[in-house]
Amino acid sequence: MKNGLIISDAGPIFSLAIIDRLEVLNSLFDEVYIPKAVWDELARDQNTSIYSIIVEFFNDKVKEISGFNELTFIMDYGESEVVKLYTELQADYLLTREVSSTPREVSCPPREVSSPPREVSSPPR
Fold it and tell me: Higher-confidence residue: 120 or 25?
């Protein structure tokens, strides 16, 4: 069973591309998208060994955000578009490596977990 729609930031994509495991996103989620700002970050250096892997995987998975991105005042450009696209598409998951993507002034109370976390296994090689 797949897990709906996920929006990803650049960090996890770089990590998965380096170990040649981007396909795990397709095996775990029905839809995978990135905002244009993340695409620009990923495609910046065409001389890297992972460039072709990233281009092939995300060729049809780039979405433009709509409207004004007010989050750029408190977050950097890529992360702010990830959050904006997550909200616009009403995605199920947001994938980022950032520990704290919110301003330090904002306090986020911990969420209670009603069921134990699910174990995720990687597909066979």
Answer: 25
Rg of the chain over CA atoms, in angstroms? Answer: 15
* 30, two tokens: 């029905």
CB atoms inside a 10 Å sphere around CB 82: 28
- Contact (Cβ atoms closer than 8 angstroms) between residue 35 and residue 63: yes
Weakest mean pLDDT among 62-66, 94-98, 117-121: 117-121
Of all helices (H) and strands (E), which one includes residue 85? helix 77-88
On the CB side of 2, CA atoms within 13 Å amount to 12
Q: Residue 19 is which amino acid?
A: I
Output the pTM of the full model.
0.74
